[in-house]
Amino acid sequence: MRGTRIKAGDRFYRMTTTEAHQQIRILVQAAAQACEDKKGENTRILELDPIDSGLSDFFLITSATNDRQAVAIADEIEHRLKKEFGALPNSVEGRSKGDWVLLDYVDFVVHVFLTERRSFYDIERLRKSARPLTPAEFDAELKTALAAKTLAARKKASSKAKPTAAIAAPEARPKKAAKKTPKKAPAKRAVAKKAAVKPGAKNPVGKKA
């Protein structure tokens, strides 16, 4: 993972590789939803090949029919990620012209193109090694990953609870054995008493003799 920290306001949150990757996916999914809400066209997410992608893990690409819409889409993405996650772009380019607005979040980059500009630069073709996904496909993969994470956390919590029960069980056994030991002594004494009575029963015979 190239990016293991997410900028949130003036702070950086350091995370493990898995946590960071999932957090980045959540941010990308939110940005893609902002594109859809502002009527962006042909929105695609490119999962970049780690070998040649540099610092970023994803490209989010969408098209606008005019420069005002392109700027509106970029503004909505920036506003939503800041409001919901406290995430700010490292840099923003092209907002003044509006034909290609680029928002660089380091771990992912958003490209908002005018339709003709997108066809001209054709980033999807240049990134042949990238895996293209629609927002719906990306969202489905994210939900599957989060569900797997939840299941793993539950299994881990369950495995931690089992040793506690195993340690508590042996403590009850010595108590049961201690209760049974005193009860055997009276039985032996009763047998001794019966044995002492039997020799006395022969005394009358001895008297007759």
Short description:
It contains 7 helices and 8 strands, in the order ββαββαβββααβααα. With 209 residues, the protein is an alpha+beta fold. The strands form 2 sheets. It has a 6-stranded mixed β-sheet. A two-stranded antiparallel sheet has the order 1-2.
Structure, described:
By secondary structure, the chain is α+β, with helices and mostly antiparallel strands. It has a domain at 5-133: Beta Polymerase, domain 2. Helices cover 57% and strands 19% of the residues. The chain is built from seven helices and eight strands, in the order E-E-H-E-E-H-E-E-E-H-H-E-H-H-H. The protein has a six-stranded mixed β-sheet. The protein has a two-stranded antiparallel sheet with strand order 1-2. The model is unreliable at 1-15 and 204-209 (pLDDT under 50).
